[in-house]
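Table S2 (continued). Query chain:
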Amino acid sequence: MGQPVNIGVVGCGAISAQYFQTIDRLPQLRLVAVADLDLDRAREAVAPYAGVDVVSVADLLADPRVDVVLNLTIPAAHAEVALQAIAAGKDVYCEKPLAATAEDAGRMLRAAGAAGVRVGCAPDTVLGTGTQTARKAIDDGLIGRPVAATATMLTPGHERWHPNPDFYYVPGGGPLLDMGPYYITSLVTLLGPVTTVIGAASRMRVKRTIGSGPRRGEDIPVTVDTHVTGVLVHDSGALSTLVMSFDGVATKAPNIEVHGETGSLVVPDPNRFDGSVQISRLGETGWHELPVSAGYAEGGRGVGLADFATTPAGREPRTGGSLAFHVLDVMESLLASAASGAAVTIASTCDRPEPVFLDPSDWQPGPS
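Corresponding output:
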């Protein structure tokens, strides 16, 4: 394996704990430094891990030990931090979405290309056994030629439990930008890139009330659509129907279903690494669980970072920037279609990411 890849983290909010746990257990990665606007929060976040420096963002970017900058800031800051890291000659891996806008994401990718560094992005949950087992079933022809898919995420809104939910209701947030990356990345992994979208959207309320924490009872403005639906036309010819909502109460719809000419799959929650894959085949009765057959076993947030960091030069990482940009382009185009009432052709494309083969006895990120 050689020497581990040294990671510097910018942003020590709630999601950072999951990344730190994964980095700590993977020999391919080593956490060397963290930075946050609140240095006390950064110190608290890395207290369980010995030998990690807590520094300013400028010092982290100047640190010659740092090979990859893990950007865990809020979406509105993704581009700014990433561009600084790229200017410092560092590879960058961002939390989703790649940036608050496709325009900013494009600037990041162009700057990275000019600097000779790479950009990667979450979500990496699609590399787990849930989505990858479903993908293998499709690739092995268990449901025949894919015809369609449905993807549904419906919740009353994160303000009910999140003490500082403001960013969910400003540009870069909303149900589509918040949760859409999980679902659309999964759909692209399962069915390939998207060529055209048709969207519709609504905004049920102009304000939300925080339900927990010290700001409980405070109203915050809503400046984005909170219910988005649409159809994605994949290059393969399959049609995916998407519903992303912060306005509903509950649903019994599967997170994702994929329908083929000879069978249908229930795909587990794309916000998780594992989960049961169910299949119903033409001529058979009922649904049957498929055995785990692909994906990184016991995955956690950060396996995509490991996959990205250990992918050989010249190969596109499974969680690479072109995939993340395409997903963001699809989401923005859905909103544009919703505003105009017309179908939108997707300007970008990407390769369908390479599959992850199952080998729980020898967990090795990076394309096989």
